[in-house]
Amino acid sequence: KQEVTQIPAALSVPEGENLVLNCSFTDSAIYNLQWFRQDPGKGLTSLLLIQSSQREQTSGRLNASLDKSSGRSTLYIAASQPGDSATYLCAARNYQLIWGAGTKLIIKP
Amino acid sequence: ETGVTQSPTHLIKTRGQQVTLRCSSQSGHNTVSWYQQALGQGPQFIFQYYREEENGRGNFPPRFSGLQFPNYSSELNVNALELDDSALYLCASSFDRNGEQYFGPGTRLTVT
Lengths: 109, 112
Known about the structure:
- The structure holds two protein chains of two kinds.
- Chain A is built from no helices and eleven strands.
- By secondary structure, chain A is mostly beta strands.
- In chain A, strands 2, 4, 5, 9, 10 and 11 form a six-stranded mixed beta sheet that branches. Chain A has a five-stranded antiparallel beta sheet with strand order 1-3-8-7-6, with no helix packed on it.
- In chain A, strand 4 and strand 5 form a beta hairpin.
- The mean pLDDT of chain A is 94.
- Helices cover 0% and strands 51% of the residues of chain B.
- Chain B is globular, with a radius of gyration of 13 Å.
- The A-B interface holds A 4, 31-32, 34, 36, 41-46, 49, 89, 91, 93, 95-102 and B 6, 33, 35, 40-45, 48, 56, 58, 88, 90, 92, 98, 100-106, 108.
């Protein structure tokens, strides 16, 4: 049974810092892994999707990596801004999306 | 291109009642997945519909049921509401069963 864990649960950093959010999964037989952003009380915005055959994906200041053998994915955010404050969730797809509980990120001006 | 829409935005129901939530998929998408997200937790998969057929179900009781229409929009029905059903209900559409999912804004259901 797939389990997805995100560490840390919360993170607060000053504006401008580069940061890494972690996601681990127990079953490496995944189709893909997706990173999402969720603002308070809102729906989910897809940030990056990495197919199982890929090692990383980049979009602007965001870079996500995938290491299936170790069951890990990281989301790297460069030059963080206050507008990046949100909860970031990762989800691993086997036959369905299995989600972590998220990392609540606060960027201090 | 119209994104995924959900209705209603908010809903308050009483324990024991029934509720229907609606989702319109993004243009060109034939798959809709439904999730329940309790406060402070990640979403939990309820079920997925692909071309009007159920294509997988999570660990939810039969009182959670769904439907997908020929235009690929979808409904989630919950009977005999319980207090623990209070949550944000999210739907997502995708081009196929394993494709990237695009989420709607969610329906906030409160059961009193």
